[in-house]
Each structure stands twice: as C-alpha cells, then as structure tokens.
Amino acid sequence: MVVGHLAGRRAALRRRADLPQAVVLTFDDGPNPEATPAFLECLAQHDVPAAFFLVGRRAKQSPELAREIPERGHEVGNHTYSHRHQWTLSPRGTAAEIRRGTEAIAEASGRTPIAFRPPWGIFNALTASVARGLGQRSVLWSVRSEGFRWRPSAEEMADHVVAHTRGGDIIDLHDAGGFPDTPTRVLAALPLIIERLRAAGFRFARLSEFL
User: Fold this and answer.
1) In 3D, which of 201, 188, 121 has the Cα closest to residue 159?
2) N or C: which end of the chain has fewer CB within 10 A?
3) What is the dotted CATH code of the domain comprising 2-210?
4) Could you confirm whether 47 is annotated as catalytic?
C-alpha cells in the first residue's frame, strides 16, 4: 500500500512552477447544500474561477447544486463516489469508487470530471492508473488551509494560506467535510485569501490551465 501511495503522490500534479503568477483554488467534499451556494456567491462576487472535487453520492443527492457549479463557470473533479480511504479498498473496490464517482458526477453536473483527487490524498496501487484510464489526471495540492489536528480561525487560515502560497500553487480548501465548522471558517476566510493574494500580484487560474 505504501509503495502504491508514494508512487501515486509522485505522479500527481501538485503545482506548476512554470506559471509563476497563477494559483488555483480547489474545494473538496461537496456539494454541500448548506454551504456550497454561499461559496459560489463569494467566488462570483470576486470573479474567481475554482475547481470543485465532488463526492459522487453527494452530487447524486444534490443534482441541481452539482449542475450550478459548472453553470457558474467552475470546473468539476472526481473525489470518488463515497469518500472511502483507498487503503481500505480491494482492486475491484478502487475501480468501482472512481468509476461510480465519475458517472454520478457527470450525470448530476452535466460535466465529465476533468481531474481526480483521492480522499485525504491517499493512493493505493491502482488509484492513479484507474483515474488515468478514465482520462483524469490525479491532482493533489501544494497549500492546504488546515490539517487533521490544526483547526485555525478564519483569520489564521487566511494568514497561513497567503504566507505559504507561491506562484503555481494549487490551494486545497473545503466546502464540506473536515471539522464540523470547517465550511463556516473557510467561507469567512475566502474573501481574505482572494483579496490578499490578488494584492500580492497573483491571478486565479482555472485548473484546466494547469493540466
């Protein structure tokens, strides 16, 4: 498992150092009916594109919201069907999670996912190859807004993201999942992150530009 995980991480896209003025915002674990609409509105107000890595069963439960994401000009990625840890899955289970996620997201959103991100950034021996066979490059991140134990306030989160962002970075945020209050804190931090990164001279790119 560890060998497959390390190989998957090495092959995954984490940043594009050759795009020194560009950064990408990505959101995991949605769509979340209680929070995603507010994220979409904030991004619209600031005219910023993003990529949403959707969980297939959640997209299936909220198809109108899943469809609104690309209608608002954002891209969708595959975050598996049920957000299972890849180390707990058999080869058949791995393939099913990724393929079912692709199908559910495409049906709900009307868009085929352009990339794949495994839950928690964990790969097994087949994860990357199954995603690649579906035409989805594995994408991780180079900046993360919080960790498994670190639970920053909105201001601390914005400070951390801005301080650690370089040109070409992929920033990982959450509109669902994480701690119970993660979406609330991320939403409060999002305008600060956008404004401060723009003031530092960065532009917000679409994920497809990085692929």
Assistant:
1) 188
2) N
3) 3.20.20.370
4) no
E-only strand ranges, 13-135: 22-28, 51-54, 75-78, 115-116
Integer Cα distance of 102 and 100 in angstroms: 5
- Which residues face 144 on adjacent strands? 172
The tally of CA atoms less than 13 A away on the side-chain side of residue 36 is 29
CA dist., res. 79 & res. 30, Å (int): 9
**Encoded tokens for 45:** 């107000």
Q: Which of 5, 28, 29, 74 is labelled catalytic?
A: 28
The pLDDT tens digits for 137-149 are 999 999 999 987 8
- Concerning whether 174 is annotated as a catalytic residue, the answer is yes
Of residues 201, 186, 97, the one with CA closest to residue 144: 186
Give SS3 for 20.
coil
- pTM given for the model: 0.97
Catalytic residue among 160, 172, 174, 175: 174
Domain ranges of the chain: 2-210
